[in-house]
Specification:
Blueprint: H1 10-16, H2 21-37, H3 45-70, H4 83-98, E1 113-116, E2 122-125, H5 126-136, H6 138-154, H7 164-174
Antiparallel strand pairs: 1-2
Helix pairs in contact: 2-3, 5-6, 5-7, 6-7
C-alpha cells in the first residue's frame, strides 16, 4: 500500500542524532525509502543497527494505517445509521490520516488560568482577561471581578460557576452588585409646607 505520510518520532531522532552527518542522512533517507517506496535499505554498521531498531515501529504504523483505510478497525455502517453520522465518521477518518497513525493525537496544552480577585476565585486566561479589559474597560472589569470573587467566596460558589469569562460579562451586562442611587432630592420649599392660595 502506498503511503503519503508517516510519523517521525522523537525516539528516531534520539537514536540518529549522534551519527555523523553522512550516516544521519543515510538513515533518514533509508527510513523514507522504506516507508514511501517499500525499498529495503542498503546500510551497514551502526546505521543498519539503528534502522533495525526503528523498522518494527514503521511496520506497525504501516499496518495500522492499512487497516484504517480498508475499514478493518472501524465497524461497518448499519442500515439505521444516518447520513450525518456517516459524514462525521468520514471526517474523523480523514483527520486520523493526517494525525499520527500509531498514537493518539496530541492536543495543544490549554492556556494557564490565573487567579483574580482578593480570594482568587475568578480564573481567567491572559487572553480572556485582555479581551474583557478591551470590551468592558478597567474600572468595570475590576468591579465585576471584585463582586463575583466575593460572591463565590461567601457562598462556596453555590452557583457552580465555571466559565468565569461569561459570568463577568453577565455581571456587567445585568449590573450585578450595583446599588441603584436615588435621585438627588432638592430641599423643600416653604410652599411645600402650606397652601399659598389659602393665605
Amino acid at each position: 500500500m502506498e503511503r503519503g505520510q508517516f510519523t517521525f518520532y522523537r525516539s528516531f531522532w534520539e537514536a540518529i542524532r549522534e551519527l555523523s552527518a553522512k550516516d544521519k542522512t543515510a538513515v533518514i533517507c533509508a527510513i523514507c525509502a522504506y516507508v514511501f517506496d517499500e525499498e529495503a535499505p542498503a546500510l551497514s554498521g551502526t546505521s543498519k543497527a539503528i534502522f533495525s531498531l526503528i523498522k518494527p515501529t514503521l511496520d506497525s504504523s504501516a499496518k495500522k494505517a492499512a487497516n484504517g483505510k480498508l475499514g478493518g478497525s472501524k465497524p461497518k455502517a448499519n442500515d439505521k445509521q444516518t447520513a450525518r453520522e456517516k459524514e462525521k465518521e468520514d471526517e474523523v477518518e480523514k483527520e486520523g490520516e493526517i494525525e499520527n497513525e500509531c498514537s493518539p493525537p496530541i492536543s495543544p496544552p490549554r492556556p494557564a488560568k490565573q487567579k483574580h480577585g482578593q480570594y482568587g476565585r475568578v480564573l481567567l486566561t491572559q487572553e480572556e482577561y485582555d479581551r474583557l479589559m478591551f470590551d468592558l474597560g478597567a474600572e468595570e472589569l475590576d468591579r465585576c471581578i471584585r463582586y463575583i470573587d466575593e460572591a463565590a467566596q461567601s457562598n462556596g460558589n453555590k452557583n457552580k460557576w465555571k466559565d468565569w469569562n461569561l459570568v463577568i460579562r453577565r455581571c456587567s451586562r445585568e449590573g450585578w452588585g450595583q446599588r441603584y442611587k436615588q435621585k438627588p432630592t432638592t430641599p423643600p420649599k416653604d410652599s411645600d409646607y402650606y397652601d399659598e392660595e389659602a393665605i
